[in-house]
Amino acid sequence: MTAAQWWRGAVGYEVYLRSFADGDGDGVGDLPGLLSRLDHLAELGVDAVWITPFYPSPMRDHGYDVADYRGVDPVFGSDTDLDACVARAHELGLRVVVDLVPNHSSSDHPWFRAARSSRSSAYRDYYVWRDPAPGGGPPNNWVAHFGGSGWTFDAATGQYWLHLFLPEQPDLNWANPAVRDEFDAIIAFWLDRGVDGFRIDVAHGLVKHDDLPDNPVAAQPDAVELGAVVSTWETLEHRYDVDQPAVLDVYRRWRAITAPRDAVLLGEVYLLDPARLRRYLAGDGLDLAFWFAPLHVPWDAQRLRRVLADGAGLPAGRVAWVSGSHDRSRAVSRFGGGAVGRARALALSTLLLGMPGAAFLYQGEELGLSDGAIAAADAQDPIAVREGALARTRDVCRTPLPWAPGPGFGFTTAERPWLPFGARTDADTVAVQRDDPGSMLHRYRRLLAVRRDTPELRAAPLDWLTDAGPVVAYRRGDAIVAANCGDAAATLALPAGAWTVAFASRADAEGGDAGDEFPLAPAEAVILRRRSG
Ligand code: TEU
What we know:
Helix content: 10-25%
Largest sheet: 8 strands, parallel, barrel
Number of domains: 3
CATH class of the largest domain: Alpha Beta
Shape: globular
Radius of gyration: 23 Å
CATH topology of the largest domain: TIM Barrel
CATH superfamily of the largest domain: Glycosidases
CATH architecture of the largest domain: Alpha-Beta Barrel
Oligomer: single chain
Bound molecules: 1-O-alpha-D-glucopyranosyl-D-fructose
Number of helices: 13
Distance between the termini: 37 Å
């Protein structure tokens, strides 16, 4: 244990930088835009902001292909702009978490350019190169997340390089101590710049099995509903390419650098099996890991209960709860869209924000945004553009944030943003919702305020109040969190005591006494507190 561990119980906010706010009118969100809108996050009441990659990049995967781990891409601004964002965030009491992308670099990174130039390059071993299989073709059967083989042949040097994502995202070789040293220095560099931690991209990746064996073919497409189309990635069981126990050595080493400076290591550990995720949070592993199961759960009380219980069973306080991200259809849309989808998404947020641990909102959740509609011709995501899988495109959750009515929705002064807004209305905007006490924005502000003012939600043990039926409910000491996850009105029988409604997803239900039996409309959610005395 060290210092204050500021991240315990914190609520963060994911800024997908390209789509947050455009400061220079080129249609792409940037750091000056973020700087001008940081007040929104402070007013919302979050504790931290996670900024998606701003590093120099050819943007083949919109910044998750880093060509310089220490710089700022001109499309996002300058070093000065970044420092200004960090300083302003700190003034507002917000911590800053930056995205670290250690599984792969861009093929434009000088390391890869050197590595590719010759087999004898000092940087060759920074990446994973292999000879063709004996009969020709790729060294093994591994596939890439974005479709096709996980290997691309380099004719000039006669070997394949490994890439679990695009060919332009070559995987770094974490068996090479020099790569480990490079990232120690990169982490120290950003800590010296004043950041408060790192969101680690593909944190279950990095280390591969030494022998690079073939992965077993998946018995059936993953039971998890990843979308309408089964991707190439899901055709294999990922036994040897990700989730190798030795990756924990990397995080132990990083913790020695970050913990004394009270900086967080937050892993994007994309494992939906809690037993596998648990290993990353044991002992001196990662401080926090996202628990992604809520992004894959249908609107079903029993399934929701399971997903919450699984996350709650992970090491205490080390889960970062999320219901959305820049990689996944928004909760409002997953749960049916419209008013019903919005109510369900708010109910899920209520259930997540009452759980022990940290939580993150993804930009736009506080506005109740649904997915933006994207025509094939407007698609930008390599999943859509390269794999041809428009049904799985991540563009829908990455459309620009609508700030105010009018052309460019206050996001940009450009004629066209980099992605269309996707059929937003004035009612979706921050400005309109700020002036409407009945808006989703005001509900989220209230929810975060109640979380802040209810110490039990950080400290008290969790007891389930229901284990069947449509109402998902749990108790944290003198607080109760409940949501009706069914399609009909239902009631929750309350434990003895006088309970008041501290938060209600329907604003007009707040403030009163709760009685013994609390009625909940479909998708209604509440936080109750026991009245003292
Ligand atoms: O996503 C990682 C990622 O795509 C996998 O973890 C995947 O979601 C999971 O295995 C389910 O199939 C991160 C970023 O969030 C994403 O935007 C990037 O494209 C990707 O890494 C590559 O850097």
